[in-house]
Design a protein that fits this description.
- The complex is a heterodimer.
- By secondary structure, chain A is mainly alpha-helical.
- Helices cover 71% and strands 5% of the residues of chain A.
- In chain A, the strands form two sheets. In chain A, strands 1-2 form a two-stranded antiparallel ribbon. A two-stranded antiparallel ribbon of chain A has the order 3-4.
- In chain A, helix 10 (238-245) packs antiparallel against helix 11 (248-273) and helix 12 (275-301) packs parallel to helix 17.
- By secondary structure, chain B is mainly α.
- Chain B has helices spanning 2-11, 13-31, 40-59, 76-96, 107-126, 130-148, 155-186, 191-200, 208-225, 233-240, 243-268, 284-305, 310-327, 334-365, 376-379, 381-395, 401-415, 420-446, 460-478, 481-492; strands at 65-67, 72-74, 270-273, 276-279.
- The chains are: A mainly alpha, B mainly alpha.
- Chain A binds chain B through residues 64-67, 104, 132-133, 135-137, 139-140, 143-144, 147-148, 154-155, 158-159, 162-163, 166-167, 170-171, 173-174, 177-178, 180-181, 205-208, and chain B through 378, 388, 392, 397-399, 403, 407, 410-411, 414-415, 417-418, 420-421, 423-424, 427-428, 430-431, 434-435, 438, 442, 445-446, 479-481, 484-485, 488.
Chain lengths: 502, 494
């Protein structure tokens, strides 16, 4: 089941590459089919997932490289299931949202399907080597998707993304190898490593004559690799470039899924395998989360480019996830994972909406570089678009009634109830205020006020754009009132994870 | 006595087969001049290499046997390296069929020279005696000088040959001097006798003349594999020599150099200690290798970043890869040596593939700088995709064999604790290498093609070759168990 969901897009890529040239619609519909099937399988997965247990389900396991105990080990538990569902949903939506790509359509969809295989594999893999393979092969299609189909500075953005993420990944490679050799018995199995946590305590490794605790070095190495992906300040500088220069659908996938892999990795590896080191680093992690929130929000407020504003808002919202994770409370961690899902949907909506307006007028300026207004009062001419943007915006800032509120509230409840972090939590809550500030200010400048005569002939959203946005709208509204469908999935697994920390 | 000679010849069969093919080529060219400009000489070379591989397979992995009055050795390592040598020679001959840089009337000479170099490479690999090693190195070097200057009309080719000659002569001279000093100290040139002589004296009791001899012998071996500090010849020679010949240089003599280093270090400077080896000179050996490896990696990667000629980029990348491979020698473990061997297999396929694409571009556009590659991915998708496969494999990105090679090398380094600094340096170097490999892909895929109307066509010969190298690169990246098993078996008989 999981292998089918993971490798169907890869088969789709092979099919697309064999299609004859000059038939873009055939390519597009093939891509739709090969992303729709994993979506349907995802719904089946959702129905059949056992919500009462914390153990891994839908396991597929076979020996791959026996000389090194490497297994093809796929399985999901409460932590990965929301991410898997988010991936299949967003991939399907993005394939439809990419309908406007008209140059090199075959290559685009081939790379996109390849990317989906990588993303699914990362969330389902339970063998460290397999996880690493899927983690890194995602970089190849991302480089080409940004570099070939991107915007003005696509070449710079693509190589910056590639180099930055690769640097983090190779540190992860070293930790992976070291974990294999220092573990008794030698294994790459993440579940086994988690069960035998504590085996790295007390050992040291020397670097330039200075002994370091082994588990702390492991923790730092893995953390840097994941922190680049989240992205955690100060490793975030690739994000504004990559998000802004990528084509719309790629930005959606980048913000909606790829960012979550960083925090997923921390929860999958740092927490269960190295709990003592995680407690040691929790202070630093929490502070970095707060910095993310405040710094991201302040940068977003200063932006004149709409897409860059949304990109920085992603940095800010991932800060909430880090805060929730570092609080070690049930509310905090559940809120963090829920925020991962909710942010995926709301930021996807934001990027799709930015893409809509960019397709119309080919600029995204709130304020143009020469100081004149980019938009203004367009609510009068595009009411449906304004409505959708309002929903996305309010979900993002955390208006009660929409999904963002529940996850942010849980994160802050959890963070505040941890006595170590109360001051930082209060500082972090300023982020909510700042979030409202920049989002509402943007809304005011773009949609309200007198109509900018340049844009009086704007067309409202067509049926295809509505099709991509309505499912996300629905999810954002429903989960804002009743989040249990997602929260039920993760409860037992996160409870077992937190039990390690007492 | 006669059975012993017969048995020695049997174990030396693949090399004798090379000599036979050489004779066939000579006679063919002498008596039937018509075949000189046809594809027949190259076909004979390819078939000779295929038969050579079959002979190697038939002789199998034998227990370590000293042959030819102990001057040569036949063991699992020799068997492994024979495959690599024949593969490199055969594939180079195949790709020369479609290359315009090697002129048609020079095909017989090309076949002769490349078979000669292969024979020399085998001599380097089987040597158990320093003079036989030297003869092997000289054979490879002198004929390489000739091959570097193969395009007689090209100024760059002549320059490359001359630079190679001068540098190679210097390195050989240093090496033979070092060998003579080592002989004076230990009284023997056989590897095993050197080891016995060295164990008799405590490590601190060796006179400085011994250390000098080691440094000089190292300079000769380092020159062959283009390791620091004897790497300076590589960029200019790679840039000037015709591309098919550079393809061979980057793989064949390098593998032979590693065969020689492995036999020398593990035979003369170490003793077998269970599965691994114990260095006679103490742990300093590993530390020295670590420093050399670090310097080679850094020099190779950092120099490549600023280059605009793709052949020079690949030359510096070869230097960097030697740096990575030397990491496997640290600690003298069986796992480390087997990772070097695996890396050589992966490196063979991906480097030949990368140079093959450079050759195709060179034939198309007449030049090899980055601007010649603009938009080529869209015009010739197969070339673009296979180049992406080779370059990502060279970087060390998973799903490709280059990653598995680096995985094994870094694994052996971490297993031999105490060199964390080198591991971190190595992975950071891999990230740097991504920048210059992606520069080539950026030109091929992210830039618009130069203003040319017709889409260039890719010949079937080249297409088959590129696919034939790209698919194993991916296959080996995913299912590397069997080759690892083969390499470890080869080492057990060493």
């Amino acid at each position: 089941m999981l292998s089918l969901m993971t490798f169907l897009p890869l088969i789709g890529m092979a099919v697309i590459l064999c299609l004859p040239n000059g038939k873009p619609n055939l390519v597009r519909w093939t891509a739709v089919v090969f992303t729709a099937i994993p979506l349907i399988l995802g719904i089946i997965l959702y129905n059949n997932f056992d919500r009462s247990t914390a153990s891994v389900q839908f396991v597929e396991r076979m020996s791959w490289i026996p000389q090194f105990n490497i297994e093809y080990y796929m399985g999901i538990d409460g932590l990965s299931v929301p991410m898997v569902l988010l991936t299949v949903l967003l991939s399907f939506i993005c394939v439809i949202a990419s309908w406007g790509i008209d140059k090199g359509v075959k290559g685009y969809y081939a790379m996109f399907l390849f990317l989906e295989t990588g993303m699914m594999g990362v969330f389902c893999a339970l063998d460290f080597f397999l996880f690493f393979v899927f983690w890194e092969i995602m970089l190849l299609p991302m480089y080409f998707l940004i570099g070939v189909w991107g915007g003005k500075d696509k070449v710079y953005a693509a190589i910056k993304f590639f180099l930055y993420t690769l640097a983090g990944s190779v540190l992860m490679l070293l930790v992976m190898l070291a974990m294999y050799f220092y573990a008794e018995p030698h294994t790459f199995d993440l579940i086994k490593l988690a069960e035998s946590h504590g085996q790295f305590l007390g050992k040291t490794v020397t670097l330039f004559g200075v002994p370091f605790a082994l588990d702390k070095i492991f923790w730092i190495g893995l953390f840097i690799g994941f922190a680049i992906k989240v992205p955690i300040w100060p490793f975030h500088t690739w994000l504004p470039w990559a998000h802004v220069e990528a084509p719309t659908a790629v930005s959606v996938i980048l913000a909606g899924v790829l960012l979550k892999m960083g925090t997923y990795g921390i929860l999958r590896m740092n927490y269960p395998i190295l709990p003592e080191a995680t407690l040691w680093a929790s202070n630093a992690m929490f502070i970095l989360g707060v910095i993310n929130v405040i710094y991201g929000a302040l940068c977003a407020m200063a932006q004149k480019d709409l897409k860059k504003l949304v990109a920085y808002s992603s940095v800010s919202h991932m800060g909430y996830v880090i805060m929730g994770m570092a609080s070690f409370t049930t509310a905090g961690v559940n809120g963090a994972v829920l925020q991962m899902f909710n942010h995926g949907t709301s930021t996807a909506m934001l990027f799709l909406l930015v893409g809509v307006i960019y397709d119309r007028v080919h600029h995204r300026w709130i304020v143009k570089p020469d100081g004149s207004k980019g938009f203004g009062g367009i609510a009068a001419v595009v009411p449906v678009y304004t409505g959708m943007m309002a929903i996305a915006l309010f979900a993002s800032l955390g208006l009660p009634g929409l999904s963002g509120f529940i996850s942010e509230a849980l994160v802050f409840l959890g963070a505040f109830s941890n006595p170590h972090f109360q001051t930082y939590t209060v500082i972090g809550s300023i982020g909510i205020l700042l979030g409202a500030a920049y989002l509402l200010w943007m809304f005011m400048r773009v949609f309200l006020g007198p109509l900018n005569e340049e844009h009086k002939d704007l067309e409202d959203m067509n049926w295809r754009e509505k099709l991509t946005l309505l499912p996300l709208c629905g999810l954002v509204i429903v989960l804002g009132v009743y989040p249990m469908p997602v929260m039920n999935l993760m409860g037992p697994t996160l409870a077992k994870l937190l039990a390690l920390f007492g | 006595m006669n059975e012993e000679i017969l048995k020695n010849l049997q174990l030396f069969a693949p090399e004798l087969w090379i000599v036979l093919s050489l004779c066939v080529l000579f006679l063919l060219d002498g008596f039937i001049p018509k075949v000189r400009e046809s594809v027949v000489p190259l076909f004979i070379t390819i078939i000779a290499c295929l038969f050579g591989m079959a002979l190697t397979y038939k002789s199998g992995v034998v227990a370590k046997t000293e042959i030819f009055s102990r001057m040569a050795i036949s063991d699992g390592l020799v068997n492994f390296f024979r495959y690599i040598f024949f593969f490199a020679c055969g594939v180079t001959a195949y790709l020369t069929l479609g290359s315009k840089e090697v002129e048609e009337r020079g095909r017989t000479e090309f076949g002769l020279l490349i078979l000669c170099v292969t024979f020399g490479m085998s001599l380097m690999a089987v040597a158990n005696h320093l003079l036989l090693l030297y003869i092997g190195i000289e054979t490879v070097s002198i004929i390489s000088f000739l091959m570097a200057g193969f395009s007689r009309e090209s100024l760059r080719s002549n320059e490359a040959a001359f630079k190679y000659l001068v540098y190679g002569a210097l390195a050989s001279g240093l090496m033979i001097y070092g060998i003579s000093l080592l002989y004076a100290y230990t009284g023997s040139l056989y590897y095993t006798d050197i080891a016995t002589a060295l164990t008799k004296v405590d490590s601190s009791g060796h006179p400085s003349i011994f250390w000098l001899s080691l440094i000089l012998i190292y300079s000769g071996l380092a020159y062959k594999i283009s390791a620091f500090p004897m790497h300076f010849w590589a960029p200019d020679v790679y840039e000037g020599a015709p591309t098919p010949i550079v393809t061979f240089f980057s793989v064949g003599p390098k593998a032979a150099g590693f065969a020689a280093i492995l036999h020398f270090v593990l035979g003369a400077l170490a003793t077998k200690d269970g599965e691994n080896w114990k260095p006679i000179l103490g742990d300093n050996l590993s530390q020295v290798i670590a420093v050399i490896s670090a310097c080679t990696m850094i020099v190779g990667n950092l120099s490549a970043v600023g280059q605009t000629n793709v052949k020079r980029i690949l030359a510096f990348s070869s230097i960097a890869h030697v740096g990575y491979m030397l990491m496997g020698l640290i600690g003298l473990t069986s796992f480390g040596v087997s990772s070097i061997l695996f890396y050589l297999v992966a490196y063979c396929a991906m480097n030949i593939g990368a140079f093959w694409v450079v050759g195709i571009v060179s034939d198309l556009k007449g030049r090899e700088d980055l601007s010649a590659f603009s938009g080529l991915g869209w015009q010739m998708p197969l070339v673009g995709v296979s180049m992406a496969v080779f370059l990502f494999s060279l970087t060390g990105i998973p799903m490709f064999s280059g990653f598995i090679g680096k995985f094994l090398l870094f694994g052996s380094l971490i297993k031999t604790q105490g060199y964390l600094w080198l591991a971190i340096l190595g992975v950071l170097n891999s990230v740097v290498s991504l920048y210059y490999y992606v520069k080539i892909l950026k030109a091929m895929w992210l830039e618009k093609p130069e203003a040319e109307t017709a889409s260039p066509k890719l010949s079937v010969l080249n297409a088959v070759g590129l696919v034939g190298l790209a698919v194993p690169t991916i296959w080996l990246g995913l299912f590397f168990g069997p080759v690892v098993q083969f390499v470890q078996t080869a080492l057990t008989r060493f």
